[in-house]
Write a structure and sequence with these properties.
Length: about 200
């Protein structure tokens, strides 16, 4: 039974020697998600991952150039192209000349996308796209000149003995009312409720 599971796994994933043609065929047909799923979790497929990231960067760049695209779309395309360059560069270290040229292509694409991004940002600033320009706050209805003096602090004076006595009486009266209300609430809560 275990052999059947291994056979099914090999059929589902494919042999590693035919992985590259399958991934390239998927990329040629524009099936980027299927190619990504096929490469997911695999080790030592930097060159194929570079091809996938390069195709994703080109697709993201085309989508970012469409009217009404989000401003961060070109940033995303630049990052994908840079990741493709890094993936191919790691293969080029082993002396693979094709991966070196591919890495150069990825870096050129990243530079081109950066230039497009910068031009789009300059154009947005020039045209004053209302979506990206916050509305100014309303003017202060009562503007105060900068040279105006700050408001005068209230005068503090000492209370007379009579005023202190009146204040103490008023506070004592409020305290009595508060205690009476609490006592009344306690009595009401102690009564049996029929609900």
């Amino acid at each position: 039974m275990r052999g059947v599971g291994v056979m099914l796994l090999l059929v589902a994933c494919g042999r590693s020697d035919d992985l590259a043609p399958r991934v390239r065929a998927m990329l040629a047909e524009g099936e980027l998600r299927a190619a990504e799923a096929l490469l997911e979790g695999r080790e030592d497929v930097d060159a194929l991952r570079g091809h996938l990231l390069f195709a994703q960067a080109k697709q993201a760049g085309r989508q970012a150039e469409d009217a009404g695209s989000e401003p961060f779309a070109l940033d995303f395309a630049v990052r994908l192209a840079e990741r493709a360059g890094v993936a191919w560069q790691s293969e080029a270290v082993s002396g693979d000349e094709v991966s070196r040229r591919n890495a150069e292509r990825a870096w050129l694409l990243a530079d081109d996308l950066r230039r497009k991004r910068d031009a789009a940002q300059r154009e947005r600033k020039k045209t004053g796209d209302p979506e990206f320009n916050p509305k100014p706050l309303p003017d202060d209805p009562d503007p105060k000149p900068e040279d105006a003096e700050p408001p005068e602090a209230p005068k503090i004076r000492a209370l007379s003995a009579d005023e202190v006595r009146q204040l103490a009486d008023r506070l004592a009266q409020k305290e009595r009312r508060k205690m009476e209300l609490r006592q009344k609430e306690r009595v009401e809560s102690e009564q049996e409720r029929d609900w």
